[in-house]
Amino acid sequence: MQKNMIITLLFSILIAFFAILNAAAIPVNLIFMKMDISAALVILLSASIGAVIVYSLDTVSKMKSRKRCKEFEKNNAMMNKEIKELQEKSTSQLLEIENLKMKIEKLKKGDQEDAIKKI
């Protein structure tokens, strides 16, 4: 952030220096009227308007990025919730499988006991 500030400050100083070197009055045609204005004023106004436009576009871009980030975070939370639910379901199914295995073992032992009784 400081790097950008330093670059912006240096660029502003360069523009101001250039404007001071070109301080002579020049004719400017503003669609509805024509007037003589200092070239320095034209340069500084143009640079200022450009800076405001760039700042506005950057702000809109940041707002869109924040919105998109919030959507990703919301989606991530939903997916984490779904993963947790699936893990719980998987755990309960594994327990059910173990219970069924135990029942099968009991049935096998019961069949063996019935076979022994028949002999």
TrEMBL record:
Residues 22-83 form the Lipopolysaccharide assembly protein A domain. Residues 69-103 form a coiled coil. PANTHER family: MEMBRANE PROTEIN, MEMBRANE PROTEIN-RELATED. Keywords: Cell membrane, Coiled coil, Membrane, Transmembrane, Transmembrane helix. This is Integral membrane protein. InterPro entries: LapA_dom (IPR010445). The chain crosses the membrane at residues 39-57. The keyword Transmembrane helix applies.
